[in-house]
Request: fold
Amino acid sequence: MDIIVLKPGGYDEEIKHIAKKLEGMGLTSRISKGTERTVIGVIGDTSKITEETDDSFRAIPGVENVMRILKPYKLASRDFKKTSTIVKCKGMSIGGKKLCVIAGPCSVENKTMMLEIAKEVKKAGANFLRGGAFKPRTSPYSFQGLGEEGLKHLEAAREKTGLPIVTELMDPRDIEAVEKYSDIIQIGARNMQNFRLLLEVGQSRKPILLKRGLAATIKEWLMSAEYIMSRGNQNVIMCERGIRTFETATRNTLDLSAVPVLKKLTHLPVVVDPSHGVGILEHIPAMAKAAVASGADGLIIEVHTNPEEALSDGEQSMRPEAFKKLMKELRPIAKAVGREI
Ligand code: PEP
Ligand code: MN
Reply:
């Protein structure tokens, strides 16, 4: 037994009773109230629950059916929740008709540049500002980010532009600071399977942008979303950012087939990061357009006013004019697939 589907109607008392009964079995419940039906997700090890126990739940008034989900992820699954999740954040929606565009530098470098870039991306039509204060760098000698000081620069940019902030959390020890300044917490590709970190952000009230691991299958990625959701945070946004393949012509191989595949398997919104996905400036617009055409709910793009001097990922950062042009070119594509930008 993994989900309990209730008949249409109230049944508040029965829901409480079911939750209590599950608690007695060492399990917890997550309630998803749809417009027609309420579904209770059973959280914990359900593999040893017998058919008889399933039947005892079927006997509870209001219970329409008790089902097993064959997939290893439940809360993230479309079997559990049929309607697509729209993540709400500071008046913005991710997963609705309107596409969400997150733009900004790879790293926060100083206050002046942060304000300048924030102004530019806002002018071009971005809905969120990105920028890393804690950077996962391959080399320990590369710029590691400004830490909390960087978060303060992001806050200043939000104050000036009103753009909500997306920034990465790498270590549970920084969660308090990142939660305080951010609007969406990014979990980077390298930490997609840092399970302790996932459980930690599962307790946060902030939405989580979960990037795909460098060599993660879609199933593993969904299991990571499940880790977060199992702790109560249902606001997870999946972010395709390219995977490692044998191909060396691009920084990563942007797996756009992940978009329709995810849309079928999960109700969670999906955004695409063409910047890290290809890592080559001139190919980013093509892949951003393809991402929108493939049904993505949004994009996350690196933009810098002075890419030459950028402290990280300058070579793949778009200049504001190019970003503005791309935003315009995305409009008819969004429209063709029934979306707005
Ligand atoms: C980033 O967004 O700057 C970043 C480091 O991304 P990823 O974790 O996908 O490499
Ligand atoms: Mn980057």
Observations:
- The longest strand covers residues 28-33.
- The chain has two domains: 3-67, 87-336.
- The domain at 87-336 is CATH 3.20.20.70 (TIM Barrel).
- The chain has a mean pLDDT of 96.
